[in-house]
Amino acid sequence: MGFLGEHGLKIQRRRAIGSLQRVDRLGRALRKKNLINRQEYKVKRPNALWHGDGCHKLILWGYVIHAFVDGFSRTVRIFFFSITFLLNLSCL
């Protein structure tokens, strides 16, 4: 597990989480407060509602990802992986 594993300590995930929950009650409450409230919705049939999202975190390396999900079945319908050639490789 992350920091502990890097230092050669092997601890079960459930024990680490349980310990953190006992020790850090304030931090746990603050993290729980910032949860995203997701709105529930009903879709009558497939392809009636689609969600689209893109990931531009890798654009520095020339990669862009887009996906579209069907709101009825929650399955990925379209997935694009693009390679961009608009890189500025100059150094100041």
UniProtKB/TrEMBL annotation:
Residues 41-78 form the Integrase core domain. This is Integrase core domain-containing protein. It comes from Lentinula lateritia. The lineage of its organism: Eukaryota, Fungi, Dikarya, Basidiomycota, Agaricomycotina.
